[in-house]
Protein 1
Amino acid sequence: MKKWVYLFEEGYREIPAERRRDLLGGKGAGLAEMAGAGLPVPPGFTITTEACNAYFAAGRQFPEGLWEQVLEALHRVEEKVGRRFGDPQNPLLVSVRSGAKFSMPGMMDTVLNVGLTDETVKGLIAQTGDERFAYDAYRRLIQMFGRIVKGIPGERFEHILDRYKAKTKGKQDTDLTAEMLRDIVEEFKALYRKELEEEFPQDPLEQLRQAIRAVFDSWFGKRAVDYRNFYKIPHDLGTACNVQTMVFGNMGFDSATGVAFTRNPATGEKELYGEYLPNAQGEDVVAGIRTPLKITKKASQEWAREHGISEEERRLRYPSLEERMPETYQQFLEVAALLERHYRDVQDLEFTIERGRLWMLQTRTGKRTAKAAVKIAVDMVHEGLITKEEAVMRVEPEQINQLLLPRFDEKAKERAREKGDLLARGLNASPGAATGHAVFDADTAEAWGRDGRPVILVRPETTPDDVHGMIAARGILTQRGGATSHAAVVARGLGKPAVVGCEALQIDLERKQFSVNGRVIREGDFISIDGSTGEVFAGQIPTIDPNLAEERELAELLAWADEFRRLQVWANADYPRDARKAREFGAEGIGLARTEHMFFEADRLPYVRQMILNAPEAQRLMDQLRAAQQAAQARPDDPKAQKALREAERAVRTSKAVKAYRKALDRLLPVQRKDFEGLFEAMDGLPVIIRLIDPPMHEFLPRYEELLAEVVELRTRIEERRKIKGYRPRKGEKSIRQMEEELAEKEALLRAVNALREMNPMLGLRGIRLGILYPDIIRLQVRAILEAACNVKRRGITPKPEIMIPLSADVKELQIVREIVDEVAREVMAREGVEIEYKFGTMIEVPRAALLAAEIAQVAEFFSFGTNDLTQTVWAISRDDAEGKFLLRYLEEKIVPENPFQVLDRKGVGRLMRMAVEEGRRTRPDLEVGICGEHGGDPSSIEFCHEIGLNYVSASPYRVPVARLAAAQAALKERAARIETR
Amino acid sequence: MKKWVYLFEEGYREIPAERRRDLLGGKGAGLAEMAGAGLPVPPGFTITTEACNAYFAAGRQFPEGLWEQVLEALHRVEEKVGRRFGDPQNPLLVSVRSGAKFSMPGMMDTVLNVGLTDETVKGLIAQTGDERFAYDAYRRLIQMFGRIVKGIPGERFEHILDRYKAKTKGKQDTDLTAEMLRDIVEEFKALYRKELEEEFPQDPLEQLRQAIRAVFDSWFGKRAVDYRNFYKIPHDLGTACNVQTMVFGNMGFDSATGVAFTRNPATGEKELYGEYLPNAQGEDVVAGIRTPLKITKKASQEWAREHGISEEERRLRYPSLEERMPETYQQFLEVAALLERHYRDVQDLEFTIERGRLWMLQTRTGKRTAKAAVKIAVDMVHEGLITKEEAVMRVEPEQINQLLLPRFDEKAKERAREKGDLLARGLNASPGAATGHAVFDADTAEAWGRDGRPVILVRPETTPDDVHGMIAARGILTQRGGATSHAAVVARGLGKPAVVGCEALQIDLERKQFSVNGRVIREGDFISIDGSTGEVFAGQIPTIDPNLAEERELAELLAWADEFRRLQVWANADYPRDARKAREFGAEGIGLARTEHMFFEADRLPYVRQMILNAPEAQRLMDQLRAAQQAAQARPDDPKAQKALREAERAVRTSKAVKAYRKALDRLLPVQRKDFEGLFEAMDGLPVIIRLIDPPMHEFLPRYEELLAEVVELRTRIEERRKIKGYRPRKGEKSIRQMEEELAEKEALLRAVNALREMNPMLGLRGIRLGILYPDIIRLQVRAILEAACNVKRRGITPKPEIMIPLSADVKELQIVREIVDEVAREVMAREGVEIEYKFGTMIEVPRAALLAAEIAQVAEFFSFGTNDLTQTVWAISRDDAEGKFLLRYLEEKIVPENPFQVLDRKGVGRLMRMAVEEGRRTRPDLEVGICGEHGGDPSSIEFCHEIGLNYVSASPYRVPVARLAAAQAALKERAARIETR
C-alpha cells in the first residue's frame, strides 16, 4: 500500500531532504523539519502531493488507502495531544491547509477549526472556560467551510455578521458578545441549509474529508491556475494538504500570534524582525484591523519614536514581546537562530503563543528586497554560513537591476510628501522612478517625446494602440488594471517605471486632465511616479542615479561573481558619459558604439541631411568617373575613351551635388573624430567596438507623410486664393508668390525623401549596403576613428578600436569594405606617423551571415550577434509592428513562452548562433565572439551565451552588474551540472 | 620540355578527346579532329591554352621552348604545303587565329595573310598571276596587323581606303585597281611608320611572333573580359592560337567561301543549310556587302520565289553551289555528314574552295533556335544517332520557355509588315511578344497598369527608378543600351519582352512621344514589340498562346524527360483557367493557389474591405464574449461573472462592427466556394494546395498617402472658403457642407487605414498571424474549401484539397489553426454527409520554421518552401526595395553571382531548406515537401530541389515544361555523377 500520509516527524525521518518539498510541499516540509529538529510544532500530518495527483487522476476520488491512513494519523495525533477528534468533552480541533512545492500566497484554500460541531463546541467551552471564544471559533468554521468547501458567496455570511455588528457600540468583531455569536452560529447554519438544502455537517470526520477535498480542488481553481500560468509553475506538481492541531493565540493575554523574519527583509540587517498581536488569531495580523506590536524592544522603541509616542505610553500600550514575555521571547530567539542555521538562509516564521506556550506554525525561506538579498548573502559568507558560490547563486540578477535603477532622492520625496504632493498610490507594476509632463494620449506622448520633453503617459488603461506613446514616455500611469494588465506587461518589457490600477484618479480624456482628491493635474503639468512603491506625486522630484561604489555589499558580491564567470561583460555605449558609467559598473569593453546616434545631435544633423540628399547624385557621377578612368587606362589610345574621361571629370568638377556631398563629409569628420576620442579616453586600454553607419538614410530626414501634408496644403491654398479676383493677403498671411517659393522648396525635399523611402526599411538599403553604395561615408568614419586613435595615443592613452560592419550577409561584402577600411587606415597611420592596432569584424544579424559563418570568418576577426535584428529576421517579425499588433496576443495564447525580443529564442535564433560560433571558430580559432543585442543584459539569454561559448556579452551600462552576476551563475550552474553527471 | 605546339593531326593523335578542347580550344580541337579524320584541312598547328596561361604567368613573355616549337611546326607545315614562309618565290602565308574552349564570337583577334612582305608579295604574284589579288592581300595584312597587333585606330586605314574608292566609278573595294592597291600599300606603310615611329616588319617571323602575342593579349582585352563576365566563363582558361596555311576563296570564279549548318538551325529540318560567295574571302560573307548565294538548289529556288526572281535569272545570276560546282558540292555533303556523325550533333562549318579544291576551315557545334534544338534532339533519337537521355540533356530548359512564351500571330505580323507598321528593329533583349499603349514614364506605366491597361514602357534607357514601371508594363522598349543594359537585365529578370538599343527611335520625353522615320507615336498609341526578334511595330498585333499539343517534338521530348525525372512538377495557379493551362502543360498538381488574388476581384473587393475595416473591433468584442463565457462557466454562482457575460453578449449583439463583419464574411463564402469548385474541377484527381489568406490587410485598402493627400486638400479648401464672407459655391463646386461630409467619411477611412499601416509589412501582421487574430476569416476559407470539395465530389469529381498555412514560425501557431481547420471540416462534412480527405500543411518561408522543422512536422503533413519570402528573410533583403536600390549594384560587383530571387541561393537559403527537409522527414517520414517560390521554375534551383529530395517543384503554368525538363536533367546528371564516382 502506497504511503499517502506522513506525520510531521515521519516526514523528517522517512523522506530524504531533497524529496521533501516535492512530496510534502513547502509548508509540510518546513513543519516536518521543525518537528524533526524537536521544535515546538503543533502535532499533525501531511497528505502528499502524490495523493493530490492520484485524486485528480481518479476523477476527483480519494485513492485507495488514503482515508484509512488519514484516520490512522489522526489517531496518533489524538494520542500525542491527549484530546480526541469529535470528543464532546475534550475535542481536538485541526486546521486543514494547502501547501504546494512553490509558495502561491493566497491562491489556495485553508479551513480552520475543523472538528467543531454543536456538540464539541461545548467541550471547547469546557476546555477554555470561554464561551465567546468557542462560538466565535464555531462561526468561523461554518463561514470558511461554507465559503471555501461549498462555494457559498462570502458576502452572504458577512451580511449577517454586519447586521449584528451594527447593533454593538464599537461596530467591530470584537464587540460581539457570546450571545450574539451563538445567534450568529444559528443564522449561519440556517443560511447554509438554505443555500445547499442540507445541514452543516455535524460529523467531524465528514468535515475533515470535505475540507481535504476542497484543498485538493483548489489546486485547479481559476486563481491558482492563472497564478501558475503567470509564474510558469507546472500544473502537474499538485498540492500537499496539512492537517494540524489548532492552537489559539486568542485565549487571553497570555496568548499571542505573530510573524517574524530572522533578518530584516527590507535592509538585510542581522536582527530579528517581526510583529505580534496579543490575544489574537493569525488572520487578525493579516487583516490589519489592530495595529501589530513589534517583537524586539529596539524595534518597538524606534517605532514609537517615529510615531511620537512616549516611552511610558509605549511600555504600557505597545510593549514588545521581548518585554511582555521575556522567557517565551528567549525561546523564540533560539528557535529562530536554529532554523536559520539549519536552512542556511533567512527564515520567514509564523508562530502562536497559546497560554504562554510557543508553537511554531511555519518556516520558509524569507522573501526579501533586492538590497536585503545582497546584504544577507554577503553577510552570511562573512559569518561562514554559506560559500561565496552560494552567495552568488542566492541573488536574482534581475533584483540587482532594481538597486541600480534611477530612484527618487529620498529627501526630496519626503519633502514632497510633507507638502502634500503625494496624490495617490497604485500598484507598483514596473520598478524605477520617473518624472515628466503628464500627457493623456499616445500621439502627444510620442510628439513631445520626439521633441526631447520628458513625459509620463496617463491613461485609464492602455491598449496596443498606446504602445508608441509608451515607448516615448519616461513612465506610465493607469487608473485601471493589475500586475498582468497590458500597461504593466508592456512597461516591464520596455524597462520603464509604471504605476497601474491607481483607481483614485479621475481621468477626463476630453479635457486632458485628471483629478484626485479634488486636485487637478492638466496636460503638461509635472508629475512623478515611483514604480517601485506605487506612489504618484504632483510636481517634479529629482531622480538620482545609484552609484556602485556606494553599494559596498553589491560590489563585494559582484567581485566574487567575477571570480567565477567565464564570459566577459562589455557594454553598449554611444557616448563617453555612458562609457564611463559602464566602466564604473565593471564593463570590460564597449561591445557596441552606434555612430548614427551621434548623427542625430543638433550640431551635425544639417550636415548629415546634406550628405544624404546629395549622396545618390554625387556617387553616380563619381562612379561614372571611375568607370571612365578604367576604360581610358585600358584603351590609352582610344580617343573616345579619353573624351569620355574628360567629360566625366568635368561632370564631377562642376556638380553641385558632389560639392555639397564633399562639404558635408568634411564637416562631419572633425565632430565624429571628437566623439571617438571621448570614447577611447573613457575606455583607455579596453576594446571599443565602433559600428559603422547602420540605419536607412530616410531616418535622418523629415517624415514623408508630414511633408506630403504640407505640400498638399500649400498647393490647395495657392489654388483657392488664385480663384479670388484681386486677392490680397490679409495680415499675417503670406503672398501667393511667397507660398509658391515655399512650395517649390518643399516639393524638392519631398521628392528626395520619396526617393529614399522603402516598403520595408528593416530589409532595405542600410548597414553595409550603404557602405557599398556610398563608400565615402565609410571612408569618413574610418578616418575619424583612426585619427581619433592617433590623437589619444599621442596623449598617452591606449586606444583599442574595433571596426564593426552591420548587416553583412556575404563574405564578399566584407571583402570590399575591408579593403576600403585597411586602405584608409594605412593612409591615416602613415600621415600621422602613429601605429594603431585595430580589428575588423561584423555583426551577425542576418540569418545568412550565421549560415555562412565559416566563410565570413575568413575576413572578419570578430563576430557580434545583433540578436535584435536576428530575432526579427529569424521570426520574420518586425518589432515595431508586432509588439503593438500581435505579440501580446501571442504571449497570452502561450504561442511564445516569452517575448523573444527580451529572452533569447534558443530554438530558433539560438540554434543559428550556435552554428555560427562553431563554424566561425573552425575557420578562425581565435575569433572573438560576443552579443550586442538587448539580450546581452537578460540573465536567461546570458546563460545561453555562456553555454555556446561566447567571449563576452554586451549590455546597456545599467545592466552590466546584472550581466556580471548572471554570467557567474551560468558558470556555477554548469559546474554543478558537471559534478552531477560525473 | 613541355609541348606547347601541336600540328593539327598531332593534336588528334596525342591528346585524348576529352582534353582536346581544354588544350586546343574549340577551333583547334575541331581542326585537329577534321585533320585526324582525313578531311581536307589547310595544314597548320595550334599553340595550346597552357602556353597562353604560361605567357601571362611570365608577365607576357613566351614560355621557354615555345618559339622554337613554333618554328619547328612551321617547318613541318612548309614541307607539307611545299612552300616556304618568307620565300620570295613561293611564299607560305598563314592565318593566326584565337580559339578558346568556349566560343566567344568576335571577341578576340585574328590576323590573316601573315608572311607577306615587300619581297614575298612578289612571290604571291608569281604564284597566282594576279597582282591585284596579291596587293589586296598585302594591304589587308598591314591594315589588320596595324590595327590589331599595334592598336592603330582602324578608321585611319579606312580613311585612306575611302579616298581611293572615291576615285573609282563604283566606289567599292572591288573597283580598286592593282595600281591603286599598290599605292594603298605604300600609304598604309607610311601611316604605320608615322603612328608607331617604326617600319612595318619585313621579317615574316617577326610578323608571326607579334601576331601570336596579339592573339594571346586579346584574351584579356576589355571586350573579351566583359563577355566572359557576362556569360560567366572563367578567366583562367586562356585561349589557344591557331596558325594555319592561308587558302583563298577569292582566286577567281573557281574559288569560293561559305558557311553551312548540317541542319537548318532555325527550324531543325534535316537539310544542309548555308550560303557561299564565289570569288570571295570569308570576311566578305560576314561583312554582308555582297548577297550570298544558297548552297543547295532547293534553298536557292525557294529564295528566288520569295524574291520574285525567275528561274532563268536565278540560274544565271544566283546559282547554288550544288549547280555551280556539283563535284565539290558532293564532296562537301559527304564531309558534312561525316562530321555530324562524328560529333553526333549539328555542325556549323566554314569552308573555302580555292581553285576548285575544297578546304575545311572550321567545324563546331551549331547554335540553333529553341525550336530547332528540340526538333534536332528528337530527330536524332529517331535516327539512332543519340539516346533519349542525350536528347533530354541537349536542350536548355530555358530554351523551351521561349517556345511557350506568348508570340505574335505570324500572319497578323506579316500583315503589319505589309502595311508598313514595322517601325524599327532593336536588340532582342528579352524574348516574348507584347502589345500595349506606349507610355514614356514609369509612374504613368504603373498607374495605367494598375487600372488594368496594357502598356509598353518606352524610355531612352532605364534606371533603377524605372523598375516599378517596368513591373507594371507588358514590355519594355529603349532607345539605347545593349544586351547587358539595365533594361535588358531587368526585363529578363522580370520575364517580360524587351527590345533595347533601338537607336532609330527619336524619343521626346517632354512631349511624351517618339518618332521614327517621320512617323510619330504619342502616349497612349498602341505599339507592339517582339522581344524574340527585336521588331517594333505600330498598332496592336494579337498575341497567341502556344499550345503544347501542337509542339509535337516538344511533347515527345518532355515525355522522355518524364521517364527520367524523380521530382514531380506542380503549378502555381490561382484561377481555374490557369489550372487548366498548367494541366495541359503537364502539371501534376497545384502547389500554390493564392486565395487573396481572388479577393481583389471587383465583385468582392467591397466585402473584403468591409471585413477588414470591421475585423479589429468585431474580434475584440467576440474575444471579450469568449472570455466572459469561460469566466461565467468557471464561477457559475458568481453574480459578477454572470453580469459580465450578459453585458458581453449584449455588446456583440448590438455592435455594428460585428454585424458588418459577419455580413461581409457571409457574402464572401459563396464566391470563395465557387472559386475553389473551379480549381477542383480543373484538377480532378490531382492535389490542390490552397493557401489561406496571406498578405497584410492594408493591401486591400486604399493607399494611405493618397487618402492623406485627399483629406488635407479637402480640409484646406474648407478652411480657405470659410474665410470668404458670404461664400457661395461656383458652378460645379460642392457646398462647404457637402465637403465636410465627404471629409468626415475620408477621415474615418484614413484612421482605419492608418491603424493597419505597418513599418515593415513584410514582417508584420500577415499570414498565420492574421488567422490567429481573426480566426473567423480562416473559418470562412476552410468552410468554402470543404463545401466546394463536397459539391464537386457529388458531381463525380475527385477533389484533393490540401490546406496550407503561410508564414508560420512555431508549431504552436499551427496547432491552434489546425484545431480550427479540423473542427470546421468535421462540421461541414457532417452537415453535407460527404467525406473529404484533405491534408494540412504549412509554408516554410520564415527561417525559424526551417530551423524548427522537426517540431513543425508534428502538426504539418506537408511543407512547401516559400523561397521568395525565405530569401527575403535569410538575406534581410526586401525585394521591393532591393531590386531597384542596390541589388543591381550587387550583381555588377559580383557580390552575388546571380539574383537570389531568381536563382536559389544554395549556401544560405538552400542550407536551411536541406536542414528542414532532413529534420522534417525524421519526424514524419512521409512528409510531402515541395517548393512554390518563383525558384520552382528556375532550372538551377530545380536541380538543387532534386538534390535535397523534394517531392515536387511548383512553377507558374508557362514554366511547367521547363521544370519537367530541368527535373529530368537533374536526375540524369545525378546518375552520371554516380557512374563516375563508381
Protein 2
Amino acid sequence: MNALPCTSLWVWPMLYGLGIINAEKSEFNEDQAACGKLCIRRCEFGIAEDQEWLTVCPEEFLTGHYWALFDGHGGPAAAILAANTLHSCLRRQLEAVVEGMVATQPPMHLSGRSVCSSDPHFVEEKGIRAEDLVIGALENAFQECDDVIGRELEASGQVGGCTALVAVSLQGKLYVANAGDSRAILVRRDEIRVLSSEFTPETERQRIQQLAFIYPELLAGEFTRLEFPRRLKGDDLGQKVLFRDHHMNGWSYKQVEKSDLKYPLIHGQGRQARLLGTLAVSRGLGDHQLRVLDTNIQLKPFLLSIPQVTVLDVDQLVLEEEDVVVMATDGLWDVLSNEQVARLVRSFLTDNREDPHRFSELAKMLIHNTQGKDDGGTEGQVSYDDVSVFVIPLHSQDQGSGGH
Amino acid sequence: MNALPCTSLWVWPMLYGLGIINAEKSEFNEDQAACGKLCIRRCEFGIAEDQEWLTVCPEEFLTGHYWALFDGHGGPAAAILAANTLHSCLRRQLEAVVEGMVATQPPMHLSGRSVCSSDPHFVEEKGIRAEDLVIGALENAFQECDDVIGRELEASGQVGGCTALVAVSLQGKLYVANAGDSRAILVRRDEIRVLSSEFTPETERQRIQQLAFIYPELLAGEFTRLEFPRRLKGDDLGQKVLFRDHHMNGWSYKQVEKSDLKYPLIHGQGRQARLLGTLAVSRGLGDHQLRVLDTNIQLKPFLLSIPQVTVLDVDQLVLEEEDVVVMATDGLWDVLSNEQVARLVRSFLTDNREDPHRFSELAKMLIHNTQGKDDGGTEGQVSYDDVSVFVIPLHSQDQGSGGH
C-alpha cells in the first residue's frame, strides 16, 4: 500500500491512471492519494464451540483493490495521515467480518453457531446481505481513521483536516465511500452515473442547523442558526425577510431581530459557502482542534467523519474496454461538469485505443484541462486548487482483481 | 371547510371522490378527512413606508383546494382536532406570505421595500421560488397545528395522535405534505408517480437512533439504541452478532453485552415495527402526553410534526380526463400495492366513462377491495384497519379551481 509522492504524476500503467497537480497555493500539496491491493486474511472458525478467532490460521486471503483521494485543508498533515492509515483501518474492519462476507447470507452470529433456529429468517427479513458488511466496514474504518488522526495530530502538535473519497473493488462490486466534496462518476459509452454525493455546508444545511437548534451553546452567542438570502444588517431590523430554519425545506418570512444580525452558521453560496465562516466541507477526517478564528467555537461537533457508501454491481454490467470510473478532488469538478468530463474521457479513449498508457495519460489530460491547457478540447475554466484524478478502467479491473 | 362525518361515505360528485370505512376496531373511526376550497386573502402593501399590513384591505382572494386525511391512534381526538384546525393554520400561514407568492420572484423583504440593490440577485442565487413559500407555509402550518392540538388535548384531558396527509392545489401546482404512513400517488395512463414518502420507525431509523445517541437519557436505561436482527436474549451474551448504530447504513458485528439485551428503541419489521414498543409512525400530530406503558419515557422527542412536501407541477402535464391522484391511509396500502391500485383505477375509470359519480364510486370500490369484496378484480388481501381514500381528478381540478 503506497502513500504517493505529493507533486509528481504517478502511474501504474494499464491497471489505472492517476494524476495529481499542486496548484502551489501552499508549499505542500494538500491533496494526497493512496492505492494498492487489499488483502483480507480469512480465518477459520475455531473448532471448540466457544473458541474465539484463531490467532494463527490458514493463510487464505480475500483480495480487492483500493483507491483513495484525500483533499487536505489547514496543511497536509491530516491528508498524509489518512493516506497512510485508512487502508489499514479498512483491512482490520473487513477482517473482523470477513466470514460473514463470504457466506451466502451473513449469519446472525459470526461464530456460525445458531442460538435460535429462525435466526436466518430474521437476517433475511432485514434484507442484510454480504455487501452490507462491506458498507459497515467502510463506515467504521472512516470513524477509526478519524480517531487515529485526532490522536496523532494532538500528539505531534499538528493541525488540519481532509476530505476522503475511497473506492474499493471487492467480490465483483465497487464500493465508493465519500466524506467531503470530492466526487466519483462512472463513465460508459451511453451512461454517466454519479457514484457519490458531496457533503458541504449547503447540502447538509438541515443537519447542521438541527444540531445548533439542539445545542445552541455550540454557537456561543456569536452565530445565528437561521438562513437568510444574505447576511443581514442594521437596515433590515424590523423588516420581514426571507428565512429558513432547520425544519424547513421551503422558505418563509420573519421579522428581523437583533440576534438575526449575527454571522450566519452557514454563509455564502456554492464554492464560497462556509460552515461557521471557516470550512467549505461538512464531512471529512481530522479537524479535532479546529476553532473559529479568535474564538473558542469548535468546528468538530458539526463535522462528521461518516461517509456515504454507494455500491456499483460491476458483475452485473456488460463491461466495455472504455468503461471507467473517474475519481477526483473538487479542483476538477469546480471547473468541469460530469458531462464535460465524460465527453473528454470518451473522445480521449477512442482516440488512443492503442496506447498502453492511455488511462494515466487520460488522468493527466483531465488535470491539464483544469489548467487552461486544452489537450482534448476547449472546454472548462481554470482551477486554482490542487487537483487529483484517478481513472479506473473497470474492464481490466475485472480481469485483474479476480475477487476471492 | 368541512370536517367530514366519520363513518359515512361522503361525496362531492364530479370534483373528486372520497371513501371512508370504519373497521370497527374502535368505537369511533380514527380516520378523519377534511376538504374544501382554500381562500387566501391578499392584502395590499401599506402606502406609508413603514406601515404594516392594513387590517382592512381590498377583498382580493387567491383560491385553491385542500384535501386532508388524518389517521388517528389512541382515540380519534387528535384526528378530529387536526381535521378542524389544520386548514385554518395553513390559510393563516399562506396569508402571511401571499404577497411573496404572487410575485414573479419572492422579494427579500415582504414589504417590497429594497434595502440593498442586489437583494433580488441574492434571492435568485439561492433559487428561492414562489413555491418555496407554499412549502414553507405547509411546514409551518403542521407545526402550528401540532401546538394547537397539544394545548387543546391537555386542556380537555384527552390524549392521542394522528398522521396527516394533505394535498393543496394552488396556482397550477399540487402540493402534497405528509407526516406519517399515509400515501398519495399520481395515476396516469402510462405513469405511476409516488407523491409522498412514509415516515415510520424503520424509514427514520437513523434520525431516531441519532437522537437517542445525543440524549441517552431519553431512553431512561430501559431501551437499547442499537438495531439487531431480532431482540437478543441471554444465550446471545458474549457472542458476536449483527448490529447497526446511528451512523451506519451497513451492518457489522459486535460482542453482545448485558445492556444489548434491553428492549430495542425500534423493534419489529414492516407493519409490526414500533418506536419504543408503542408507535408505528415516527411523524404526525399530537401525542404530546404519550408515554411508554408503565414508564415515564416520552414518545414526543422522537416524533416529528414536520411534513415532507412534494410539488407536482400540474400545469406542465398534458392532462387526460382519467389522470387522478389517489390519497389514502395505510389501511389501503397495507393490502394493495401502488401497481394494484393503478390497475384498479385505470380499469374502473375506463369502464365507467359515462358515470358522473365515477370518482366517488372509484374511491368506494378501492375501499371495498380492502375488505375482501372484489368489485374490480381478485387482487388484494383484507385490511382490518380503518381505510380512507380520496380520488382527485386533476383534469376537472384544472378546470374547476382556476388558480389566481
